[in-house]
Amino acid sequence: MLKADKVVPTTCPYCGVGCNLELHVRDDFIFKVTSPFNSVVNHGNLCVKGRFGYDFIYNKDRITVPLIRKQPQKPGQRTQAFDRSEWREVSWEEALEYTADRLVEIYQRDGSKAMAVYCCAKATNEDNYLLQKFFRAVFRTNNVDHCTRLCHAASVVALQMAIGSAAMSNTAAEVKDCDVFILTGSNPTENHPIIALQMKAAVEKHGAKLIVVDPRRIEMVNYASLYLPIRPGSDVPVFSAMAHVILKENLYNLRFIEERTENFEAFASSMEKFTPEFAEQISGVDRQLIIQAARMYATARNGAIFWALGIPESTHGTANALSLINLALLTGHVGRKGTGLNPLRGQNNVQGASDSGAMPWHYPGYQAVDIEENARRWEEAWHIEPGGLNRQRGLTTTEILAAVHPGGVRALYIMGENPMMSEPNLNHTRKKMQELEFLVAQDLFINESGAFADVFLPAASWAEKDGTFTNTDRRVQRVRQVIYPRGQSRPDWQIICDLAKRVESRLNRPNSAYWDYNHPSEVLEEMGRCVPDYAGIRYERIEEMGLQTPVPTLDHPGTPYLYSERFPRGRAKFHALEYVPNAEMPDEDYPLVLSTGRVLEHWHGGTLTRHSWMDDLFPEALMDIHPADAARLGIKDGSPVRVTSRRGAIVLRAKVTTKTNIGVVFIPFHFREAAANLLTTDAVDPQAKIPEYKAAVVRVTPASEEELAADIDSQPRGRY
Ligand SMILES: Nc1nc2c(c(=O)[nH]1)N[C@H]1C(S)=C(S)[C@@H](COP(=O)(O)OP(=O)(O)OC[C@H]3O[C@@H](n4cnc5c(=O)[nH]c(N)nc54)[C@H](O)[C@@H]3O)O[C@H]1N2
Ligand SMILES: Nc1nc2c(c(=O)[nH]1)N[C@H]1C(S)=C(S)[C@@H](COP(=O)(O)OP(=O)(O)OC[C@H]3O[C@@H](n4cnc5c(=O)[nH]c(N)nc54)[C@H](O)[C@@H]3O)O[C@H]1N2
Ligand code: SF4
Ligand SMILES: [Mo]
Q: From ligand 4's centre to the CA of 179, what distance in Å?
């Protein structure tokens, strides 16, 4: 057995569960990952990615030297460059001087509306706080967003409308204290595996009853007391019909409604039309199941709702999330241990990036940019003249790309995101990437988006820097430098500070907003001075175990569950709802609904997992299709199929399985050679601006092996 020089505790870089890891290091090389049995989040359990998926750090395709494109790129003619020969290795000095020159040139010519930035839910709180500070304080723009927009944006908007907050109300592990919990639009065995373990234990060891509402027969259905196999996009009718039953059968919590909520009458009358019969017609779910689910949830002592992307990633995602919030308010299943409204957040630090202000409508701490008092607070913190900060809401990720044209956004800075795999309707996204005047990529790899860049800034990975991540249940945990940054790569926070200083000196405001930090702990302290929820967090306090926000003071123990006394907006608000169909509904030409998402071994567009051992575990794109649909279309298990939507077509192999229900096919959006987002629609929810990733309509036809091979070659590919 290899003996470690040191064993360093840190936090998993993959999903929002935020498992505690121990990295075993010998000669500056990580050779093993374990987890302590007393770890607060995961009790020694890890999924395959946490335990084995870290080797991307050492992948030979990783970029560890700053690069500038050899051929200057022109708007409209920008090309993708994966190949080493198309880039020039440069010093940090040259890369940052060049980047500062180009950004300042565009800013001075076109002003703040020409500047935009994508922050990174994989990077630390400190990295994200500084990047949004750079664009807000220096370029005076709120065009700051990140992948939360493509993720839980509608859950966040709905929670803010109804409650005034935007996070999971309870701790995931409290699921064992539930009598009944609803799991909808969430496939935790693949996407939040350690929370799935806790859910299984809740059912098997603690006697909780589980209600699954999902258009796919996910593994958790095996643990469910009730399974409601809904048609994609029919959540509002189903959950509102549950409310209808609860109202009609007097199963609601009148005391809670009177003491803690408002707008009940308008809501209750809007529920009248949502009869179980109506919901059955729209959703395909037997009305008796809906009635049973309503009674089971309403009569629980402790009921909770867990949800993920099947709810928000919809053109009516905000309404979907409101239909869940209405149910919790109606029954009073919120504000106590073992209850709650729990959107399972996705990326390791999407909660933290949002808290740190990586969003276009809010400063850090969800302080609206268009409220004068907030702007003043940050002007003072960042030493900016009164009135200096931009008071206008910025553009969201999808709006930023749509605004790329002369007179609109000209320069885009991407820290650790990959819109060329993750945005919907990629043919449209590609055109917009080509139209940019200047693109910076700050990443570990040249991904499909970075390949369009003018300059590449090599970032250190999570194992090569210090910082904090905030997990899905609001726990702020330490990320520790375990090995030296590979090659010349540098931690994101250092790159940003170095660049911001160069830009400020060109604008004759040398170091005015302050960029001279010695350590990320100073950055978190700066943020905490203006963000009350983080005011009590110091690195010393989270050495052993993370703290759950809000942590308002230095002696505050953290907050496992929220709203015990009051809601942030005072009374929680019920919302009246209407049924709105998906942007696209099946028809003769496109008879099937395409649902997209993830599998256990993959991470999103594959930049990390395809540069890891994980790639060997699930190496080829597959489309799940129900045996009945497959038989009707003459498709055999493993045979190639062409999938066509109104926006594009891809060829991949079919997997015939009852995991998906009749009428629904499922494709992970992981493979560039069969990129599901060539098919998806860029129609968005009007309030949250989140795209409808879970319901594009498609036609599936048999294809040949030759077509499969040809299609693979026609996609942008290649690794650096
Ligand atoms: N292995 C792995 N884990 C991950 C990720 C990853 O890439 N790989 N990504 C992380 C991220 S960023 C996120 S946001 C989370 C996402 O976590 P999930 O949301 O669990 O992930 P998806 O695979 O998108 O699954 C969405 C679920 O919604 C269901 N669904 C689809 N349409 C509807 C509908 O109309 N109504 C309802 N009620 N349900 C519907 C799908 O069948 C599926 O079960 O996962 C995180 N964890
Ligand atoms: N069809 C379809 N599309 C979807 C979804 C869906 O369900 N269906 N889900 C959406 C959702 S929920 C999400 S969250 C998005 C995710 O979309 P993205 O955020 O675009 O995807 P990732 O692959 O997670 O990108 C992370 C990038 O960060 C880099 N990186 C990792 N660590 C660091 C670091 O410390 N510093 C820096 N600078 N870079 C780093 C990685 O190399 C990688 O390039 O996809 C969305 N797209
Ligand atoms: S469940 Fe999530 S946080 Fe835990 S090991 Fe797996 S990917 Fe990492
Ligand atoms: Mo996500």
A: 28
